[in-house]
Specification:
The chain is an alpha+beta fold and about 100 residues long. It has two domains: about 35 residues; about 50 residues, SH3 type barrels (Roll), CATH 2.30.30. The chain has three helices and five strands, in the order H-H-E-E-E-E-E-H. The N and C termini lie far apart (about 80 Å).
Length: about 100
């Protein structure tokens, strides 16, 4: 036991890369299981927001369902049934879209 300890004390840099391997492995797992899927989801959501158009039926993060009647750079005006209320919500609150063609 004492010989191993003395050998380790003489060459401490030899196991540095070997000690770093588990950390690199854990980072790779986090990247492929957490970070990469979140980046893909974010890009898909940004693409959906950029493709919004008048007539699309949307659902907001607050649960409002309505039809887009006008678009602004950072906001969307909705017509919400049953009383055809006009509401303006931010584009960032849109979570899902169904186009007018899908409903037919």
């Amino acid at each position: 036991m004492g010989a191993r300890l003395a050998l380790w004390l003489q060459f401490p840099g030899g196991s540095g890369l070997l000690g770093l391997a588990p950390l690199l492995f854990i980072f790779a797992i986090f990247y492929f299981l957490l970070i990469l899927p979140q980046q893909r989801k974010q890009k898909k959501w940004q693409a959906m927001l950029s493709e919004l158009k008048t007539g699309d039926k949307i659902v907001t993060s607050g649960g409002l369902r309505g039809t887009i009647i006008s678009l602004k750079e950072d906001a969307v005006t909705l017509r919400v049934p049953p009383d055809n209320l006009k509401l303006e919500v931010s584009r960032g609150s849109v979570v899902s879209v169904s186009t007018a063609e899908e409903g037919k």
